[in-house]
Amino acid sequence: MTDLSHFDANGASNPNNNIFGLPFTEDDARLVILPVPWEVTVSYNAGTARAADHIFKASMQVDLFDAECNQAWKQGFFMRKPDRKVLLKSDYLRKEAELYIDYTSKGELVEKNNFMCKSLKEINEGGVYLNNWVYEQTRQLLQDGKLVGLLGGDHSTPLGYFKAISEKYPDFGILQIDAHCDLRKSYENFNYSHASIMYNALQELPALSKLVQVGVRDYCQEEWDYLQQNKGRVVTFFDKDIKERLFEGDTWKKIADEIVEKLPTQVYVSFDIDGLDPKLCPNTGTPVPGGFETAQIFYLLKRVLQSGRTIIGFDLSETGVGDMEWDSNVSARVLWKLCNLLVASNS
């Protein structure tokens, strides 16, 4: 066990320690954060593959005291170093994807260009590789009795973790905080696109009994049709509808409780940072006007716990990297809250 007798939780963080300045090893930590440095299919701004390092640095400024989950950190949080092999593969395939996207955006036919056909094949194979890698890493951590948080990278990254979770929990739901539905069958011909993560999860994982989406405000006809055809399994609380209800006098508590009511007993939280107001995440991959304050989402997650449901895992994705560290600062505080809630929910 980690000796905390000489650790000052009120002092400045020691950057030689792990995430949030905590002195835990992976063996001693109850919760392990797995960074996944991958952003091959992003369709707008890039940079999320290197988010983990920036969030790690920003985490040193986060105070450890949390009045709602007091002392949860004492059970231990630990973040692994980003896997360099995964990062280099992402960098290589990202360049391939940029060339492919530029080519197809001009109306050129892929089948007439052997190089583009080869690139598309490599990119889709890369998605399979990433899914398998994440699955193996998270499955082993779960088998070791760890709680697991995944840190992207783009929002395609947690599919392998969903698979590992589904093997441990044969009936679970996902609470998705997001500006987008992510329900496209594929996007730009990429099978495992960030825009397809929830479609792929619903297609591949029978254990995923319910998907509850919150904050969606940018979606296509294909996704709208999918929602209409899958109302029993997918429930979407659109940003526009939430805002209109608030404007007309409903409370966030009432709406939050309606959201929680749709969730099963075991809840996985998939948090795309672009679900927040873009003033809080201006460098995210695909920012959209609207969204939430952090306090609103933290309240929603608190209501999940107060309902008696159990949070079984989480991912945090799409944190951008800019000239200022604001995105990383916000994401570090979101990550802290998610870690605390996950441990508190399983104590």
How would you describe what is shown here?
The structure is a single chain. The chain is 40% helix and 14% strand. It has ten helices and eight strands. Helix 9 runs parallel beside helix 10 (326-345). The longest helix is centred in the middle third of the chain and has 30 residues, at 114-143. It starts with 30 loop residues before the first strand and ends with a helix. 49% of the residues are buried.
Count the beta strands.
8
Structural class label: alpha/beta
Strand content: 5-15%
Main sheet summary: 8 strands, parallel
Helical segment count:
10
In whole angstroms, the N-to-C terminal distance is: 17 Å
Mean pLDDT across all amino acids? 95
The unreliable regions are none
Identify the strand order in the major beta sheet: 2-1-3-8-7-4-5-6
**Helix-strand topology string:** EHEHHEHEHEHEHHEHEH
Helix content: 40-55%
Which overall shape is indicated by the principal axes computed on the Cα atoms?
Answer: globular
Please tell me how large the radius of gyration is.
20 Å
Helix-strand layout with pairing:
Elements: E1 31-36, H1 51-59, E2 77-79, H2 84-105, H3 114-143, E3 147-152, H4 159-168, E4 172-177, H5 197-204, E5 208-216, H6 221-229, E6 234-238, H7 239-247, H8 252-261, E7 266-272, H9 294-306, E8 310-317, H10 326-345
Parallel strand pairs: 1-2, 1-3, 3-8, 4-5, 4-7, 5-6, 7-8
Helix pairs in contact: 1-10, 2-3, 3-4, 8-9, 9-10
Key traits:
single chain; 347 residues; eight-stranded parallel sheet; 40% helix
How would you briefly describe this protein structure?
The chain is 40% helix and 14% strand. The chain is an alpha/beta fold and 347 residues long.
